[in-house]
Structure formats: structure tokens, C-alpha cells
Design goal:
The chain has 270 residues and is α+β, with helices and mostly antiparallel strands. It has two domains: 169 residues, no CATH class; 88 residues, Alpha-Beta Plaits. Helices cover 72% and strands 9% of the residues. It contains eleven helices and four strands. Strands 2-3-1-4 form a four-stranded antiparallel sheet. α1 crosses α11 and α6 packs across α11. The two termini are 31 Å apart. The relative contact order is 0.15.
């Protein structure tokens, strides 16, 4: 029963690390997908004194993906209250030209400033409306959310790593007498510590399998998928091959490294 509890404590600790790691991966993917959606909806308006062709505007900055001219017809219709057609046409000619620019990706605030500066370098462009106030707020919220999840994952990783190290150390103390007897007969250190490494590897496999099952369920859960659909993004919550191997690699590497540190520390004390 004690052996089961020891295994369980290690498995839960490793699973906590794997769970927090996968959550951070999902959050990162979600933010990237959301930024792609924002890139499609976010646009910049420039005002020009004269008509500019699309090639000229596209050449102003590599971030610009598409250009469309905004016609002033709706504005003129509101102002048109018994105006003669000649005056309407004259008004169209005197009005500045408005262009809507869509970007290749959702930019950072620093990129917005550089883009605005490059657009204003053209003498024909008299104004750039980049909606920087709302853009900066949205971008900072996304960045804050990602940073909070990152800090949360680091805290879980640090605490659970210490717990795993302590648990492996306890197992070493329990088998210290057997290890000492094997050392007297000239057994190499890797053989004396075989039980510890076996414990680390087996629990890493169990925790990886548990994480695989949990995230496979989460990725197929209808309610969770509906929440992402409501937000308007499509995210791969769990890739059985890529993410599965990644979690297994992290669990195995962490377990073996901690077990190795304990074994090397024990060797120095002898």
C-alpha cells in the first residue's frame, strides 16, 4: 500500500507538470489563432491628397497585405440635399482619397508606430488612422493573459519538481541498505540505483499516459469545442503524435535527470 502511495504521489506531481505545460501550449495556440482573426478584422485608414495605386501603397511597408479604396458616396449622399449633379461631381474631385489597409499579421504597438511613420513618409499621405488606443489595449490584454499563464506554469513546475526530487530521495533512503550491500560486492552505481531509475521511468510513463487520456478527452469534449467556436477561433487542443511525444519526452527527461542528480549526490556522500 505504501508503494502504491509513493507511486501515486510521483505520478500526480509529474502529471501536474505535464498538464500545466499542455495548458500553456493551448493558450499560446489560442492567442496566435485569435491574433490571426484580429489581423483580418483590424485595418488602418490612410488619407491621401491624390489617388494612389495599390502597388505604391503596398510598397510603403511589407506588413500591408491588401489595399481597398473607400468611396465617399455615402458621405456625399448625406450632404446631398438638392445639390446639382455638377456640384456633386466637383465635390467628389475635391475630397481627399481614403484607403483601407489590411495587414499580414496582428502587429505589436511598436510595429504600428513604424508602419505609421513609413506611411507618412509619402508626401501624398496627409493622415493615418491606426486606432492605436483600442489596438494597444487589446494587444496588452493578450500579452498579460499569456504572461500570467506562463508564470503560473513556472510556479507549478518549480514546486512539483521539488516534490518529485524529495520523493525520489525518500525512495533512495528506503533502499540505501540494499545499495550499500551491493556496493560492497563491487556493483556499479547504475546497477545499485536500478530501482530508483525504474521508479522514475515507470512513473513517467504512467503520468504521460494519464495526460494523454485526459487531453484526448478534453480535445473531443463538445462543450469545450463550443467555447472556442463562440470566440471564433479553431485551435488544436491536443495533437496525439506531436504533443503526446512532447509530454512523454518532458516526463522522461525530468524523471531521469532528477534521479541522476540524487544518485550523483549519494555517490559524493559515500
Amino acid at each position: 500500500m505504501k508503494s502504491v502511495r509513493n507511486h501515486l504521489s510521483l505520478v500526480i506531481a509529474l502529471f501536474s507538470i505535464l498538464f500545466s505545460l499542455q495548458v500553456f501550449i493551448v493558450v499560446d495556440r489560442s492567442i496566435s489563432a485569435y491574433k490571426e482573426n484580429l489581423a483580418h478584422s483590424y485595418s488602418i485608414i490612410i488619407v491621401s491628397q491624390k489617388r494612389l495605386d495599390n502597388e505604391t501603397i503596398l510598397g510603403m511597408n511589407k506588413m500591408i497585405s491588401t489595399v481597398s479604396e473607400l468611396t465617399p458616396d455615402k458621405i456625399i449622399q448625406k450632404l446631398n440635399d438638392g445639390m446639382e449633379s455638377k456640384n456633386v461631381e466637383l465635390l467628389k474631385l475635391t475630397l481627399p482619397k481614403f484607403y483601407k489597409l489590411n495587414l499580414s499579421h496582428y502587429p505589436a504597438p511598436s510595429e504600428i508606430k513604424k508602419l505609421t511613420k513609413s506611411l507618412l513618409e509619402n508626401t501624398s499621405v496627409i493622415k493615418v488612422e491606426d486606432f492605436s488606443s483600442s489596438h494597444d489595449t487589446t494587444y496588452k490584454l493578450l500579452l498579460l493573459f499569456k504572461n500570467v499563464i506562463f508564470v503560473f506554469s513556472i510556479v507549478i513546475f518549480s514546486v512539483t519538481t521539488l516534490l518529485i526530487f524529495k520523493e525520489l530521495r525518500i525512495w533512495q533512503f528506503k533502499h540505501s541498505e540494499r545499495m550499500s550491500i551491493m556496493a560492497l560486492f563491487g556493483a556499479p552505481i547504475w546497477l545499485r540505483s536500478a530501482v530508483l531509475f525504474r521508479l522514475a521511468i515507470v512513473d513517467a510513463l504512467i503520468s504521460s499516459l494519464l495526460a494523454f487520456i485526459v487531453f484526448e478527452y478534453i480535445s473531443s469534449n463538445v462543450w469545450i469545442l463550443e467555447q472556442f467556436t463562440t470566440i471564433g477561433i479553431s485551435v488544436i487542443l491536443f495533437d496525439p503524435v506531436d504533443d503526446g511525444l512532447k509530454l512523454l519526452g518532458v516526463a522522461m527527461a525530468l524523471s531521469i535527470i532528477l534521479a541522476s542528480l540524487i544518485v550523483l549526490g549519494h555517490k559524493e556522500e559515500v
